[in-house]
Amino acid sequence: MNILLRAVCVAVALLSWCALSPLTARAEIRYTVTDLGALEGRYNTEHGGTSQGLAINASGQIAGYSTGEGLTSSHAFLYDGTMHDLGTLGGDSSYGYGINDSGMVTGEADAIDGVHAFIYDGTMHDLGKLGGVNSFGHAINNRGQVTGTSDTDETPSGRAFLYDGTMHDLGSLGGNHYQSFGFGINDNGQVTGYSYWNNAASSTHAFLYDGVMHDLGTLGGTNSQGYGINNRGEVTGYSDTISDARTHAFLYDGVMHDLGSLGGPYSQGLAINNSGQVTGISLTNSLANCAFLYEAGKGMIDLNTLIDPLSGWRLW
Question: Three-state SS string across 196-251, please?
């Protein structure tokens, strides 16, 4: 069974103990993997239901979504020992992408007039949009602020936003007619994501927003994108290297550091905690996709080497 088919609580989130219980019996095994199952009813695993866990908080609560066999619709869930269906905004589907330490979830849900970003705090609240048709919530901090992306009335449409009761357009690295996308937010309200920036609008750069959108540059190649940010303002994501020969995960702490890979040509950082540990995905020498944990002084470690090899799970 692979990690994409059933929601699990694994070290990929790096935010809590949850099912990542350190084991003392075998020193090389650092984490366990817990199968979260799927939503009841038509989404139930006994009927072929699948699920994906996408975010975890310090209490081990998890947000994600579950899909039923043969269905085109999915529902966002909140897992706290039981998987709870968060419903929708009136349409067929919803997806949970972020969760804070209070158990508030953000994501996207079908509404009557499109797909809208939401906050769930026991009730699903529509965050609206900056214009256009759709908006998407990607991350939420402990102050209940959300970042994501919303359509605008411009062409091309799509801007990173920060929601604090009102949805604010964060602009772009290239001026008024360029797209941007928000993916991570910390408790200080700093946001990371990526933006088109040049005249040809053909490449993207990771950004850090702290009231002003700062271009984080690249590892020497054409593109970079930011996905996770911690409370120290450190960012992870991915960047092309010189001559676009490879695409590597990075850690930005004022300078963009190349985190390398597990041997293959591609890696991507997805989340970073306040200790500077990074998790994400990487190709190996054999081009297999694996989840990784990066720690300063230890480098990039295949997470599959840190779980019981007899568990039946492969993390990718």
Answer: ECCCCCCCEEEEEECCCEEECCCEEEEEEEEEEECCCCCEEEEEEEHHHCCEEEEE
Which residues neighbour 208 within 8 Å (Cβ) at sequence distance 6 or greater? Answer: 190, 191, 192, 214, 216, 226, 229, 233, 235, 252
- Sign of dihedral through CA atoms 63, 161, 91, 125? positive
Average pLDDT on 115-126 reads 98
Q: Which of 195, 87, 179 is nearest to 132 (CA)?
A: 179
CA-based nearest residue to 293, from 224, 233, 231, 236: 236
pLDDT-based confidence at residue 40 (cuts at 50, 70, 90): confident
Torsion of CA 309, 314, 315, 316, to 10 degrees: 140
- State which amino acid sits at residue 268: Q
For residue 172, give Cα distances in angstroms to 141, 229, 243. 22, 18, 25
**What SS3 state is found at 278?**
strand
Report pTM: 0.90
